[in-house]
Amino acid sequence: MKQEFDKTDCFTMNGKLALPYTYFAGRVGSTFITTIRDQKKIMGVRCDKCSKVFIPPRQTCEKCFSDIRENWVDLQNTGVVTNFTVVRYDGKHLPRKAPFVLALVKLDGADTPFVHILEGIEPEKVEVGMRVEAVFAKETTNTILDIDHFAPVKERVQVIERPTSPEKPGKAALSKDEMERLERRKAMSNKVIITAALSGAATMKNQNPNVPYTPQDFAEEAAKCFKAGAAMVHVHAREDGGMATHEHARIKTTHDAIKDKTPELIVNLSSAVGMGKTAEQRISQIVHVKPEMASLNTNTMNFSIVERKSGKIFLDYVFENTFTMLQDFGKAMEENGVKPEIECYDMGGLDNTLIIMNQGFFTTPMNFNFVWGVAGGQAFRPDAFIAMKNALPPHANFTTCGVGTDEFPCITLSCMLGGHMRVGLEDNIRTPKGDLAKGSFELVEWAVRIAEIFGRVPATPDEAREIMGLRKR
Amino acid sequence: MGKRVAICAVSQIKMDSDYWYMRFQNMLLPCLESIVEQTGVTFDLEKGIRDIITNSDDVFDARTISNNGVTDVVGAHFRGEEKMAQEGINGLGYAMASILSGHDDVILFMGHCKESQTENRLMNTNLAFDPFYTRPLGLDFLNASAFQAREYMKKSGVTDEHLAKVVVRSRKNAKKNPNAIESKQVTLKEVMKSPLLADPIRQLHQWPVTDWAFGMLLCCEERAKEFTDNPVWLTGFGNCMDSFFLGDKDLTSNFSLKKASERAYKMAGIKDPKRDFDVVELKDLFAYQLPMWAEGVGIVDENKGGEWIDGDGPDKQNVNLSGGMLSGSPLLLGGVARTIECVLQLRGEAGKRQVKGAKRAIAQGTYGAAGQHQAVVILEK
């Protein structure tokens, strides 16, 4: 077709269309934006059916059409860059002058990445996989720009306020894998994990001749406990003479002897070891042996021998567990595939953990042990137990142990409340009848009876691994 | 599918980068006149055009109800007039549904778009994003596509050099297409040295600013001979929409294009897309999209986009002999432009780029961020 036009005297005029407008963000959008604005907290919504956490949030799951508007989950303000582009052109619709980086950021706890601005780094240095964190706007924009931008995470150690109050634990944001694991755990809710604490650092043969010292002793005692129903043993290795040791070789030999005789068992090593050990001695052996699990202590406290009735002090000792140790030990364990068993001797220890966990290095689920009756810690009281249980972070497991006569009352309550149980000569040398126990295995047999009363079944080691989130070996 | 829909005539004006001196009514009028001239169709309420589909966009026309301005020029007074405000290829699906359902026998389909007059056409595409989560971040069809380009290139072994080849080839082919935008020939080196716009997309990887208008007459099988001796049959149509948020979807899965193709192939009885088409026209807004959409419609194996370009696959399979989107068409009308090119090929009217004996063709159109919406049509001689 011919297109011949006379262009002389053609007049053009400039339109200046602008359309200031107020958009209602919707109820879901309003919650999302105002939470970022007021609490500096980013939330997503979770579809339980699809096990997927969406951000930006929406009212309905696009996959299964479930109504998910109430399923808020807290996401971390940190995440990982999954994709990016460098915008090198200018335009009035763009929030920054060119060049600037737009990135897809997958927040920790979310399953879908979302777009945001990335600053604080040369565009040429941006990489897929880098860790970034949200930097919040000083003044609200009532849009997604209340997160002003993301910036690379700075390496740092700092204590920050925890996001959820202990009275009302929020739902922690979980990845798809973690959610699936959670579902499997739920299916095992009648399983109870029984741990046998074979020796401790302080129980000696003169108190109960069945306390193991040699690797051979430990292996035999552990096998009996397994047969009786224990899924895990907790171990402080000893020298032949009975002293608790931090020697790597001896600890590894003890650990291996148990595993050789009963490969199924979970071995949980102590990172307390015994009195007078340095922080380095306490953690280096864990890193060396890499057991499946290890104890992680949460509070500096008196850990003494005091006669209850008379109040007479036999031995005074301060068990040092600073925040730094809690952090460093916890990180070392997680980095080495050792799941921490977090020892709480009172609510303070639990609170310490709730603060440090905000650094984000603890893997889900977290596993707690409430310890009762240490001279320096708190004595067993059911109401204190329940208060601690209620203060746990989301999806956490709990077990319990008690010194001496606290042992059976505390594990009974734990069993009633859906928790797990630890018994053994480390904590208590006698059966409920008052006889010296023939070994930790006899105490395990009593724990099994308690479980039976409440209709719970001892978990196998593999079931215990599933429940506690141990890595597959 | 027992009945077929005929495309009796197509018309267009030459694509241009700046028709500042033409109102869009001026652009449409010669297209309409050409349709009337080719077919002898009238606006008689008994036997002629009673239903018109128009294709335009409020944001690109900077006015509301953009079809309001064309009612008279497309002859829509006292007639049915419906507007497709999305990728024009969907107007073909709509026309097809109107005819096959018996709503009407004859449909006039007209469309226009001027990309040249907006201050920044990417700003227009920014409005396609929601006002809360993505629009304030400046997302537009270019930077959103850049995310997809990065992932796709990694997945399918497509390099910067492959993209340069796509651009060089497009311009070479466009020389044989009198309707394409006039642009100079470029070398691989020039493309690879052109400035990055949004990594990894370069300036020369992007479709040119284009003003264009078209017309098309469709009718039912029984009446086709009243209007033409050389009908092209519209035998398949399919479309599909992927998730809105970029993070919700797998950017390289071609989910919506595969679904759209599946539907169109089923309707048209296509068994093997690698062999069944003599002509393929893909809407490559950006160079990376030529191999990516080729994978999506199934003429190339998954993840083989890079090898396909190396092996001269585009030439062997007659893909974008017109120059494709990289040699012109407004964003809004890209799928229709691809369809019209296929019609010309099947009618034997494609001039120097004619594929001899072309019997069957596929045209594809896409809209939204990073191929969110996809549609394909199957055309047969």
Secondary structure class of chain A reads alpha/beta
Order of helices and strands of chain B: EHEHEHEHHHHEEEHEHHEHHHHEE
Instruction: Give me the CATH architecture of the largest domain in chain A, please.
Output: Alpha-Beta Barrel
Strand content of chain A: 15-25%
Q: According to CATH, what is the topology of the domain at 5-119 and 210-227 in chain B?
A: Peroxisomal Thiolase, Chain A, domain 1
Radius of gyration of chain B: 19 Å
The largest β sheet of chain A comes out as: 8 strands, parallel
* Discrete helix count of chain A: 11
Which regions of chain B are unreliable across 5 or more consecutive residues at pLDDT < 50? Answer: none
Q: How would you describe what is shown here?
A:
The complex is a heterodimer of chains A (473) and B (381). Chain A is an alpha/beta fold and 473 residues long. Chain A has two domains: 30-152, no CATH class; 176-468, Alpha-Beta Barrel (TIM Barrel), CATH 3.20.20.70. Chain A is 27% helix and 21% strand. Chain A has eleven helices and 22 strands. Chain A has helices at residues 26-39, 176-186, 215-228, 248-261, 279-289, 323-335, 347-356, 382-390, 407-416, 440-453, 461-468, and strands at 42-47, 52-54, 72-75, 78-87, 100-107, 114-118, 131-136, 147-152, 191-192, 194-197, 232-235, 266-269, 293-297, 301-302, 305-306, 313-315, 318-319, 339-344, 367-372, 397-402, 421-423, 457-458. In chain A, the strands form six sheets. Chain A has an eight-stranded parallel beta sheet. In chain A, helix 3 (215-228) runs parallel beside helix 10 (440-453), helix 4 (248-261) runs parallel beside helix 5 and helix 5 packs parallel to helix 6 (323-335). The radius of gyration of chain A is 28 Å and the shape is elongated. Mean pLDDT of chain A is 89; it is low at 156-171. Chain B is an alpha/beta fold and 381 residues long. Chain B has a domain at 5-119 and 210-227: Peroxisomal Thiolase, Chain A, domain 1 (3-Layer(aba) Sandwich), CATH 3.40.47.10. Helix content of chain B is 34%, strand content 19%. Chain B has 14 helices and eleven strands. Chain B has helices at residues 24-39, 58-61, 89-100, 121-126, 141-156, 160-174, 188-193, 224-227, 255-268, 273-276, 289-296, 305-310, 313-316, 334-347; strands at 5-12, 51-55, 80-84, 106-114, 196-198, 201-202, 211-220, 232-241, 279-281, 360-367, 373-380. In chain B, the strands form two sheets. Chain B has a nine-stranded mixed beta sheet with strand order 3-2-4-7-1-8-11-10-9, with helices on both faces. The radius of gyration of chain B is 19 Å and the shape is globular. The relative contact order of chain B is 0.18. Classes of the chains: A alpha/beta (473), B alpha/beta (381). The interface between A and B is large, with 43 and 46 residues.
